Amino acid sequence: MSQVKEEIISELEDLPPRTYGEVLDFIRFLKARRQKAVPDTALASEPVLRKDWLRPEEDEAWSDL
Fold first, then answer.
1. What pTM was computed for the model?
2. Distance in angstroms (rounded) separating the CA atoms of residues 28 and 36
3. For the chain: N or C, fewer Cβ within 10 A?
4. CB atoms within 10 A of CB 23
């Protein structure tokens, strides 16, 4: 187990049980934020890259495939 993970578990064990729900909510928030960031980044880059993708030079470069 990694050092950081062991520290997290140690800190959790020092918390009162009534705070476990908050910790769980925060962990789920971090996971959701991480999962959401990937598709948003891909979608945000598409309009920026589209101008390069739709150039005649690009069509010519890929025409033999």
1. 0.51
2. 12
3. C
4. 13
In angstroms, the CA 15 to CA 6 distance is 15
Rounded CA-CA distance 31/36 in Å is 9
9 or 65: which leads in pLDDT: 9
pLDDT tens figures, 4-61: 999 999 999 999 999 999 999 999 999 988 877 666 666 667 777 787 778 888 888 8
Tell me the C-alpha distance between 59 and 54, whole Å. Answer: 7
Residue matched to tokens 């962990």? 27
Answer yes or no: are the C-beta atoms of 58 and 52 closer than 8 Å: yes
Q: Are 26 and 34 a contacting pair, CB within 8 Å?
A: no
